[in-house]
Structure formats: C-alpha cells, structure tokens
Amino acid sequence: MVSMLGNGLQVFAMLAALLSAAVLLVGVKGRRERLVNAGYLMVFGTTIALTLCIAIILACFVTENYSLAYVVSNYPNTDSALKPLYEVSAVWAGRQGSLLLWTWLISLFGSVVAWKRMRATDDLSSSALAVAQIIVALFAATLVFSESNNPFMATAPEFLNADGTLAGKIGGMNPLLMHWAMILHPPATFIGYAGMTIPFAYAMAALITGDLSARWVELCDRYAVFSFIFLTIGMALGAVWAYVVLGWGGFWAWDAVENASLMSWLTGVALIHSFTLYRKRGCFKRWSMFSATITFIFVVLGTFITRSGLVQSVHAFAEDPVSTYFFLGIMVAAGMAFLIGLLYRHGQMDDDDEIESLVSKNGSYYITNLVMIVSAVLVAYLTICSALPTWMPLGGKVIPAGAYSAVARPVGTLLCLLMAVCPMLGWRKTDGAAFARTMRVPLISGAVLFAGLMALFVTKFMPEYDAIVAAGGPAARALVEQGPKLYYFALTVLGFAAAALLFTSSLYLLSRGVRARMRNKGENPVLATCNLFRRSPAQAGGYLTHLGVAIVLVGLVGSSMYVQEQTLDLEAKPGTSGRVGAYELTFAGQREYTDSNDDLIKEVTLTVTDASTGAQLGTLAPSMEVSASNTGQQTLHAGVLTFPMEDLFVAFQGLNANGTLSINVKINPLILLNWIGAGVTVLGIVLAFTPRRATPLLAADERAAAAGASPETVAVSAKGGRRG
C-alpha cells in the first residue's frame, strides 16, 4: 500500500510538472491569464505531491515500517542519543532518497517563486517557472523510470516476518553517515544545488521573452545568494565530517564528489559577481546568463558523476543507465538552449560588457570571473578524464590529489590578490594617484602582518618541511612531488603575502565605512558598525567575506602544505611510547567491547605529553568500529587534541602482523583557522543576504500588479517610456 501510494504520487508530480510547464508557456505566448493562473496552481500541486512523498518515507523511518526496501537499506541501527535525527537524515542517506529530496527542493523553490509572483504573474516569472517545472519533471522521471532510483520499491517478502518486522539483521545506514555533520551536510548542499535552478530558469526566461533588462537578475538575485550560502555551508560541513570521521586526518582529498561541489561553488562566485555588476552598472549581461547556465550544468554534473558510474568515488552510488542518460540529456539541453537563445537574441544585447581597462573594478571582476570559470572547467575535466578515451589529453588517467593541489595553490593565491586589490580600483578606469593613496594604509599594515607570518614560516614551517622530508614515507614523497623546495617556499611566501594584503584591505574598507558613519552621523563605533551592515549589507558583508577568505588562506597554507605524518607501531604494553614532532604518545591501555547493535569496538588509550618538557597535554582514545550489519565495514573514530597553532590527530588503524598497534599520527598546523575563516565567510555572505530596499523597478512592478497594470506597461514606465 505504501509503495503504491508513493509511486502514484511520484507519477502525479512528474505529469503535473510537465503539464504546468506547457500551460505556462502557452499562457504566456497567447496572453491567456487563466492558463497562466492554472499553471501557477499546478506548480503548487507538484510540490504538494513531492512533499507527501518525503513525508511518507520519513513516517516509515520514524515508525520502523520496513515495507519499503529503501527503509531497510538505510535505517539507522544505533542506540545513539541522536537516533531520532538520524531517522530524519536517513530520508536522504541513500541514492533514492537524496534524489527525491533534490527533486522536492527544486519544486519547493519553484513554489516560493510562484507564491511571491502570483500577484504580478509577469511573463519573466511565468516563463522561468515553466523552465523550472521542466527540470522538476525530468528529475521526477529518473525516480519513476529507474528502479535503482525509486525510493518506493517494496521490500521483498522473504526479508520480512509476518508481522512486518525484519527477518534478521539486514542492511542499515552506513555507519560513516551517523555523525552530526552528515545530518546537516547533505540537505545544505542540496538546497544550494536546487536553488541554483532558479537563476538558470530566469536566464532562460529572459531569452524566451526577450526582456534583456536587469529585471530578470533583480527577480532571482536573492535566490542565487541564498543558494550560494548553503553551497558554502555544505562544503564546510563536509570538510568537518571528512576530518573527524573518515580517519585519514584531512578535510579535502579532491574526491570526485568534493570536486563536484567545488565546480558549482566556483561558478557560483562568478554568478554572484556578475549579478552585482548587472544590477549596479548594467554590464556583464552575457556573463550573468553564462554563469547561471554553467552553474546549473555543473550542479547536474555532480549528480551525473555520482550516479553514472563514470568516476569512482567514496561518495558515488552504483551505476544506473537511466540516470546517466537523463542527467546527460539535461546538461546538453541546458547548454544548447543557452547557446540558441543567445544567438537568437544577440542583436538585442548592448555592448555594455566591453572592458575599457583591465586595471579597473570592471576589469578585475572580468579577470576573476575568467579565472573562476576556467578553474571550474579544469577541475571538471580532471575529474572525469579517467573515463575519457585515451586519445584525449589525460584520457584514461586518474589524476592524483597532488596534481590538483599543484594547480590550485598558485591559482588560489592569484584570486586572493585580485580580491584584495579589486575594491580599491575605480570603475572603468583607475586613477593611479588615487589608487596609491587608497592602498597606502592596507599595504603598510599588510606588511606588518606579513612580517609576523614570515616569522612563523622561518621558525616553524621551514624546519617542519625538512623534518617531513627527512622522516620519509608517503608524506615526504607527496611533498617532494609538489616541486623543488625553493618553489614550495615561494608559494608559501606568496600565499602569506596575499592573505595579509586581503585581510588588511578588507579590514581597512570596513573600518573606513564605520569611520564615515561616525563622522557624518555622529554615531559611536558600535552603532556605526551595526548601521553599516544594516544600511549597506551587500558591501559590508562582502568585505567580511573577503576577511574570512584571508583567514582560510593562512589556515590552508599550514594545514595542507606542512602536515607532519607518521605511523607508530607500538607494543600493547603500558608505558610503550613513540614520538612524533614535539609530542610523546604513550600507550595506557586498550579494550574491546560490543555495543547494543553487536558492532565490535576496539579502543586504545594514549596519553600525550610535551616531548621536551614532559608536561601532560591530554589523553586520546581513538577507536575502530567493526559493523555487524554492514559486512564488517570498519569505521575509524579518531582522537583529536586541538591547540591554538595546530591539531594533533591520532587514528587507531588496527593490529600489525606482528601484533603491534598501528597508530597513525598527524600534526595539522593552523587548521583551526580554516574553521574560523569558514565561519566568518559564511557570516559575511549571510549578512550580505539581509533584506535591502526594493529597487524602483520591482517596487513599481508590485504596485502596478496590485492596481491591475500589465507587466509590459510597468517595464516601459520604469524605463521612462509612455504608458500604453
């Protein structure tokens, strides 16, 4: 019964989405208001059907209803206090549920647009909704026409007892997913992915209707920023999860799915920048449409990679031909629609995208966008090149993480330098004398900060580099593969220089805004700061975001370039010790036990002391969990001691052949700055998203809609033309 109801709702949602798209397009073309209104109602109907699908699966998890195979495969078999939350996160823990969640979220964004634009039912919004509904229909079709994607497949009778309970321990949620970060990481990422459908839909709507003014950007700008916030949060939470759960001591491995998120994040930066210039300066029109389109394509590419079997990944699902063809078709269709629409409307576009001088805000935005797009395309190509034919460059080859890092480090440094200098430049052209005056304070203060970072480099990182190379092993080989020592040190120096300048320039611009309010409004520093973010949230939030990026860059230099790693083989005798860097790790005991789910837990206790002074720094209890219900899958639970300058990361990897304990130890310098910087960055983006006053065009649009005027009349009136 549950299976039939769920399948029926999925089919209804697919058909309603297709019908609403057709009705909206016909209604817009024929100026038939009743059809348009019906299309809006069908958008809500699609969302209601998909909401019921989500509710059914959630109810099955909460009530332990095993009639669906998806519930059997993903039920959280644990006695953790977080189990009620794991039951919720189980809805999207598997491939079927995650795809349903994504489809529902796209539909939900469409309903929000429909709700907000119901009074106006303007051609742009109606056409954008039609595009979004086509996408919903295609996503829903992958649920309907593929058994491996369908979350409502019934459980085979042999797996159930007569009372509906499971006949033995079968399946269950992957233990790696039972962590607080994985409760939040997938939905945050999927909200970001789904929201990026709206800018693409509005870009297509602008090409369909021929309204190439900034109006379409005004209508979808906040959806883009909102989605970008969640993309950023999703990536940060994924990094936290990887660091504390996977047991390899890192937060980024250039895995295919990590790369998929990074691609859309990079193009999302270009999208936000392009929208800003389109709204404020009337330029970057083609950039805005292109960025919206390629961001959507890369979002779909992410799920294409994980579901097609094209690339191997720890996050990937089993290969599914239906997903392969559907998602490939969506990407190709999106690209072709953009190109055809752009060619068709080419004559109607102004040449406002021309750059008079690269040494200007316009020019720096252009270069930043170019670097972001090229970087995203390069990451995409390197990610899928293992599946490409051998006659293509790098075809058939798996690109190691070190190769990505070798490219990303200089490119990231260049981007941070651009971010530091761009706000100081003038529009169209930059006056050299004015630029020099503006840069004087950031350069001087940046030099002071840079000197401090260089002291850290000379006293800490240079010796650690030599120590890592001298110790040998995988860490030393990875370091040497990055290039000569002089080049590696030069990258570090440039990274610190870029971070110092970005930090001081962002702080200078924020403080300049505060001082201006204090001088002009007579406000105290606290009130002036609050009002700066309240009155100019986009600008002030942007500077705060840049400040966070500078902090992250310093953290990345330490935590990705100067990580000490060593594996200790300790005898299981109390008092046995080994040294890594400045830390002495002493074996204090071990224990084995089974939890309530019959999972075997192997735990060792280690005391940590300062190797030079003997002072005790703490105790760690890393463990290994062997799952009873997931064919003996091993999950490492690392122990971490956090200090202001570094983390001591310890993972118990089991017993060696000779009976000794294998203890993997990493010292991650400055990693705390990654989490602090990420938090500041997200806070800046959120503050930039705070409500601002409606633009005259949108305000007029809403007033006219309430009065019964047509959107076309409003558009002419807003541009200063006659009322029809």
Q: What does this protein look like?
A:
- It is a single chain.
- The protein has 724 residues and is of the alpha+beta class.
- It has 22 helices and ten strands.
- It has helices at residues 2-29, 33-63, 69-74, 83-89, 95-117, 123-144, 180-195, 197-209, 215-245, 256-281, 285-308, 321-344, 361-384, 401-421, 432-471, 473-481, 485-521, 525-535, 537-561, 671-689, 696-707, 711-718, and strands at 564-570, 577-580, 583-594, 600-610, 616-620, 623-626, 634-637, 639-642, 646-655, 661-669.
- Strands 2, 3, 4, 5, 6 and 7 form a six-stranded antiparallel sheet that branches.
- Helix 4 (83-89) runs parallel beside helix 7, helix 6 packs across helix 8 (197-209) and helix 21 (696-707) runs antiparallel to helix 22 (711-718).
- The model is unreliable at 694-724 (pLDDT under 50).
Topology:
Blueprint: H1 2-29, H2 33-63, H3 69-74, H4 83-89, H5 95-117, H6 123-144, H7 180-195, H8 197-209, H9 215-245, H10 256-281, H11 285-308, H12 321-344, H13 361-384, H14 401-421, H15 432-471, H16 473-481, H17 485-521, H18 525-535, H19 537-561, E1 564-570, E2 577-580, E3 583-594, E4 600-610, E5 616-620, E6 623-626, E7 634-637, E8 639-642, E9 646-655, E10 661-669, H20 671-689, H21 696-707, H22 711-718
Antiparallel strand pairs: 1-10, 2-3, 3-4, 4-5, 4-6, 6-7, 8-9, 9-10
Helix pairs in contact: 1-2, 1-6, 2-5, 2-6, 4-7, 5-6, 5-7, 6-8, 6-12, 7-9, 8-9, 8-11, 8-12, 9-10, 9-20, 10-11, 10-13, 11-12, 11-13, 13-14, 14-17, 14-19, 15-16, 15-17, 17-18, 17-19, 18-19, 19-20, 21-22
